Amino acid sequence: MERKDQGMPFLLQYENVAWYENGKVRILDRRVYPTQVRFEVCETYQQVVQAIADMVTQSAGPYTAVGMGMALAAYQVRDKGKAEQAAFLRQAAFDLAHARPTTANRYGQITNRCADVAEAALEAGKDPIAAIVDSTLESLGRRYGTMQTVGDLLADQIPQGGTILTQCFGETIIGTVIQAAARKNKQFRVFCAETRPFLQGARLTASCFAQMGFDTTVITDNMVAYAMEREHIDVFTSAADTIARDGHIANKIGTFQIAILAKYFAVPYYVTGIPDEDKRSVKDIVIEQRDPGPVHTAGGVRHTVPEAKAIYPSFDVVPPHLISGVVTDKGIYVPYLLDRYFDTEVKTFY
Fold it and tell me: What is the pLDDT averaged over residues 213-239?
């Protein structure tokens, strides 16, 4: 297997995303990184479902975790008959895919394929666990390879010596744009919006860029206008948890307001990712509503009175008129023309 994580930050190395071995799945707990390097160890696929729902891993991390979770499901029923194993794996595929609702379609592509390769292995008298792990690693490598094309295109939009602003944690796009910058000998500064309430921008994105030698600055979410006005932000960029064919995108809560500010300050906003073929319009985007508990706290300390309520929508939706371009593996698309992405053959991504 050709590994595509060489030279990438710690967070993006294969074993530090999610890893199956000897009847257990190990997932780096991104909720506490980098202050702690701790792994959640799951002994059933149901525990993997819960870990994803609890945001032990986020961004593209669950794409690997659900595949490794399928290997764990196969291990759980290794001593059963073929029919029982197949039925159990189909249920696991559904459960893992629906660990988080907004990206269930993407997770499902992975888990259903894992179930398919497991059934084929069973029919051929081979080990379904090994087949699932191989399929998951192939998917991971394919995703890294595809996103390298995206990272190369994004790097071309960043001026030499310029400054970019990020939102949340873009996972593979961060690793690939870092590699593209190194290959092109391009230097730029990075400002990371902290991304409350889980602080993925401050803890994860900033860690990746800073550890790879980039001039990296963390700002709180309410400093964005200041940074755009006074810190010479050249490009705002984010990944997307879903990209509808009509040009609407859903990303971590707070992306919408940053996009509005980018439009006001004439800062181009580039979204990175692969459009979802099965989401034709904004009407197909489901916004996950999470337990608002983390909104009441900072660093584990509650800072609101008991009478105060909170809400925690995990994502918001950015309309196409605020997006300068959607950077894909096939090129950069005007969001209103994004449907043209599907005019040519679509490669398997997840």
Answer: 97
